[in-house]
Amino acid sequence: QVQLVESGGGSVQTGDSLTLSCAASGRSYIVGWFRQAPGKEREFVAQIRWSTGRTTYSNSLQGRFTISRDNAKNTVALQMTKLKPEDTAVYFCATDCTDWDTARCASWGRGTQVAVSS
Length: 118
Prior knowledge:
Helices cover 0% and strands 56% of the residues. The chain is mostly beta strands.
């Protein structure tokens, strides 16, 4: 099972940018990001295929986030721009997912907190 470790979270202001990183212990087919705000269910953010770099995003992001991978370092980054208070959440890296819509994944990182103040 692939081990995942997130980093890069922090406290920022509305309109700022932040880049999260997910370090993977091995290679898997697709790696993605989810987020979970207080009192809400975990929701899909973005995913990327290791082999092709093909990406998929949540429609709600309105093009503000970009997912990318570094094959040499075995890391997946999530670049977030024009951050809003509603982006405040714990962001999780995940892989080996059977259902991305319902966050059914076999491997999860511990998460990294992102807080956006107005």
